[in-house]
Amino acid sequence: MNIKEPVRLRQRRTPTGLISLYLDIYEKGHRTYEYLRLYLVPEKTRADKEKNKQTLQLADAIRAKRVVELRNGQYGFRSLKPQTLFFDYFLSYIERKKKKNIGGSKTLCCQACYQHLIIYERRKGITFSEITPEWVDGFKRYLQNDAVNIRKLKGTKLSYNSAWAYYQELRSCIKEAVSDGIITENPARRIDTIRRKDAQRMYLTIDEVKLLAKTECSDEDVKSMFLFSCLTGLRHSDIKKMKWKEVYQQGEFTRIIFTQKKTLGQEYLDITAEAAALMGERRGDDEAVFNDVFCVNKTNSVIKDWVARAGITKHITFHCARHTFATMMLDLGTDLFTVSKLLGHREISTTQIYAKVLDKNKQAAVSKIPSIIK
Question: What is the pTM of this model?
């Protein structure tokens, strides 16, 4: 760039068909970009041409102002760090999440996003000045169309909601970079986000749980754990790490005081006598409540055979026991707030998904439709 022209007005076409105006600024050997949030529209009418003319005049006025600021040493980019290495910053973003006590699953999500960013970019030397709207949009399309699940079998396509989660982590990281003064403009601001899809939540009815309890299972420990989860809503990860020192007697109830592995939240859960009986005889404080626990995949394999033996045709995994508990509580008339607390949800909106799964009002409404077919 000519030294006499330290600031140039440039154009870039957006995915929506508009033309974004931005400044290409060169100062002391460093190039930075300032997105003006000004856009040229397709000129289909005389009004469109007039609007674009006024937009260009405004953009040029901003450009001229930046030139004066640069020459007077007043331009804001002097205090910013657009040459910060993006991947170094992203790693520090992950560490900050850990220190804020954000759940383990969130950290894993950040780390998976980081791995996909490396696959997408192929080089770690990229700076924030190179994180453009087009770059962000390209990563979004990579997640939706080309990315595979790193943790599963080779070639397994990344699920829609995983793509959503990883894209949200990128957006969150960029937003923090703006707050930290690394960049002034958020390049993801005008890129359409990935919308989260409601995942199907398979669950068992109370009668089906009773049927399973009567059916022989190839592994009694798995059977006890699954039924325990149906009666408590606890995840496999929390049941697997449960120690007897976390189990207390509170009057007529047995109370479990534990830290959720997923959210790191401290929970106080009262359980029924039937659920307590599934834990067996109390042992040493540091001993696991449930012994000989398999990995999730092996456990699900046992559950699959057990469910089939009971004549239940639903696709049931261990996590379905948690769904079963939630829908059972709602079916028995427990209010949504209480169910949210029993499940250890941080946001009640997460629990509302179960209300959508089991909506007795809808069932009552459709049952009123009169017979119209003989």
Answer: 0.57
Rounded to the nearest 5 degrees, what angle is found at the Cα of 73, between the Cα atoms of 68 and 76? 90
How far does Cα 367 stand from its chain's mean position?
Answer: 37
Retrieve residue 323's tokens. Answer: 């769904």
Per-residue pLDDT of 83-110, as tens digits, reads 788 999 999 898 888 776 555 566 788 8
Is 112 in contact with 148 (CB distance < 8 Å)? no
- Give the residue among 32, 13, 30 at the shortest CA–CA distance from 128: 32
What is the rounded distance in angstroms from the CA atom of residue 161 to the CA atom of residue 208?
A: 29
Q: Are 169 and 91 in contact (CB under 8 A)?
A: no
Q: Which two tokens stand for residue 278?
A: 């599934």
Instruction: Write the DSSP symbol of residue 215.
Output: S
Rounded distance between C-alpha atoms, residue 88 and residue 222, angstroms: 43
Work out the angle at residue 74's Cα, subtended by the Cα atoms of residues 72 and 79, and round it to the nearest 5 degrees: 140
Q: What distance in Å separates the CA atoms of residue 179 and residue 358, rounded to the nearest whole number?
A: 42
| Contact present, 75 and 69 (Cβ < 8 Å) | yes
Which of 178, 147, 181 is CA-nearest to residue 161? 147
Cα–Cα distance list, 304 to 22, 146, 263, 290, 298 (Å): 57, 31, 28, 20, 10
Alpha carbon separation from 89 to 64, 80, 177, 194 (Å, rounded) = 32, 14, 8, 23
- CA distances 299 to 237, 311, 325, Å, are 12, 19, 19
Distance CA 25, CA 9 (A): 9
**In contact, 36 and 62? CB cutoff 8 Å:** yes
CB atoms within 10 A of CB 136: 20
At 319-365, the pLDDT tens digits run: 999 999 988 888 888 888 888 888 888 777 777 777 766 666 666 66
Structure tokens at 193: 């986000």
Kindly state the tokens that stand for 357: 């799964």
Give the separation between CA 373 and CA 56, rounded to whole angstroms. 66
Q: With contact defined as beta carbons under 8 Å apart, do 166 and 120 qualify?
A: no
Report d(CA 244, CA 200) in Å as an integer: 34
On whether the CB atoms of residues 317 and 225 are closer than 8 A, the answer is no
C-alpha 134: how far from chain center: 23
